[in-house]
Amino acid sequence: xxxxxxxxxxxxxxxxxxxxxxxxxxxxxxxxxxxxxxxxxxxxxxxxxxxxxxxxxxxxxxxxxxxxxxxxxxxxxxxxxxxxxxxxxxxxxxxxxxxxxxxxxxxxxxxxxxxxxxxxxxxxxxxxxxxxxxxxxxxxxxxxxxxxxxxxxxxxxxxxxxxxxxxxxxxxxxxxxxxxxxxxxxxxxxxxxxxxxxxxxxxxxxxxxxxxxxxxxxxxxxxxxxxxxxxxxxxxxxxxxxxxxxxxxxxxxxxxxxxxxxxxxxxxxxxxxxxxxxxxxxxxxxxxxxxxxxxxxxxxxxxxxxxxxxxxxxxxxxxxxxxxxxxxxxxxxxxxxxxxxxxxxxxxxxxxxxxxxxxxxxxxxxxxxxxxxxxxxxxxxxxxxxxxxxxxxxxxxxxxxxxxxxxxxxxxxxxxxxxxxxxxxxxxxxxxxxxxxxxxxxxxxxxxxxxxxxxxxxxxxxxxxxxxxxxxxxxxxxxxxxxxxxxxxx
Length: 490
Ligand code: FRU
Description:
This protein is mainly β. The protein has 2 domains: 6-337, Tachylectin-2, Chain A; 341-489, Exo-inulinase, domain 1 (Jelly Rolls, Sandwich). It has one helix spanning 6-18, and strands at 37-48, 51-59, 69-75, 82-88, 98-106, 112-121, 127-136, 141-143, 164-172, 175-183, 189-196, 203-210, 219-227, 230-237, 255-262, 267-275, 283-289, 295-300, 316-317, 324-329, 332-337, 345-359, 368-376, 385-392, 397-403, 408-415, 425-429, 436-444, 447-452, 457-462, 471-489. The model has no long low-confidence stretch (mean pLDDT 96). It binds beta-D-fructofuranose (FRU).
């Protein structure tokens, strides 16, 4: 619908004034933050006309969630982001209560299509969520006169438009496809598949998967793509229960369902389920396929359960993870830092150390660093525990503590500067591979991302530690052989 555009213009004027006034030092170096105000989920992550575009759930006027707009940033290396004008605002009947999450794809005629959830009044004091289309040139978008393009009439039996959101669109074999999540009448999350010749007229094809009251209830923000010989369905479940083996923690989670997809029959066969990230802040990821064929993921680096208590220290709130490259190894979906980060490496130091006690090493410190520690566990059977403390000073430290006997890594950020009663401890299974355990820690100010064993498991962690706490301290209880590689990032 050609809309009044007032809300969009207002947002663009506001962010150009207020966002531009935020100094670069008040932001992480390469983790994307909103232009100004609030950010949640990544949206519309795509490669379009020679650059990566990342949109996001956005409320420019405050650092708390509000009527959802889509913010917009572009980058050629996934690390240096340039803010672009707000892409869409909640300014039509179909999305008056918010432009919720969605995705983007390029139409054969070269336009960029955004498929997103429009939230509107249901006329009975509640709201409904239906799917809307907008098309544009990568900066300005026009909403479709037929919105919502996926309405209530296209919900299968049991589906509900109270929870019906977060479409993932792609174009393949001359046809548009999208998956959308819903919560059915029996309170379980389901992933629905739709097809369309033109992205405007859709038909419901099938239910690809549902949670069966395992892995949470409502499944938010699906992504669905092939990776090597497997098909991956990513979902972010609400209300997960923790599991005894440490694979799943309670609350908001992000889960990868791995399996096979029979395109002709539109049948997804799920074979394995795993957590995608074991940290304290990670949700609603989206992926993009790079021109050289890599599948890159970015997630919202926050947690709905704790977000309202987090201190507001800047004119922005919320950020994205760094870009992570997905790959399969030993049947698991793994993630490593996108190789673009190597262009930021400076002052590289490599050392081999035999440690029994506590040490810090010259030049290995800072809050913008990429540190890899390889522990030779097989050669050091008498080492009882290894602890890495980072963002440390006399008062602060975030600890990673590995106990070989139980093959478990413990994250403890109780002394990271937080004064909040939120989860500060997470445990993650961490067994050596070929006798060695590798920890790669990427630090960007208040953002820490850990990659265990080359990316077998990951942890995204937000810190509230003052910038002056820069120490990195190694402790081995019992003799330990290790290799350290440290790069400053700049
Ligand atoms: C996930 C989510 C989505 C929704 C959006 C609203 O974090 O709840 O399901 O579209 O946030 O901002």
